[in-house]
Design a protein that fits this description.
Elements lengths: L6 E5 L5 H10 L3 E6 L7 H6 L5 E2 L2 H5 L6 E4 L3 H13 L3 E4 L10
Parallel strand pairs: 1-2, 1-4, 2-3, 4-5
């Protein structure tokens, strides 16, 4: 039986990633890459965490066939849209807070 490895991708460089990335690495999962909207602004982040692959858009990370698990540390208002895109690619996701907002009657 072929073992399928978890290849993580992260959408963005939120501060919470400073805690999440060491956890991913300590569990011996592969951190395949991180997407950013501003590569130059986040160069220290990439060096600190030894990120090998930098995606210059969130879509390019989501569309990468090598990545099968995506962490979504984006603002709450973006969770639904990005998690939906991840699911449409038949990938798993982990989101830092609530997935969607609901309004009770």
């Amino acid at each position: 039986m072929k073992t399928k490895y978890i290849n993580w991708g992260i959408l963005g460089t939120a501060k919470i990633c400073d805690a999440i990335i060491p956890c991913i690495k300590s569990l011996k999962y592969n951190l395949s890459g991180v997407a950013t909207r501003n590569k130059l602004k986040n160069i220290k982040f990439f060096k600190k965490h030894k990120i090998k692959k930098i995606y210059e858009s969130y879509n390019s990370l989501v569309n990468d066939e090598k990545i099968n698990f995506i962490y979504v540390p984006l603002p709450n208002s973006l969770h639904f849209d990005w998690c939906k895109k991840v699911l449409q690619k038949k990938k798993m996701f982990f989101v830092k807070n609530q997935f969607v907002w609901t309004q009770s009657a």
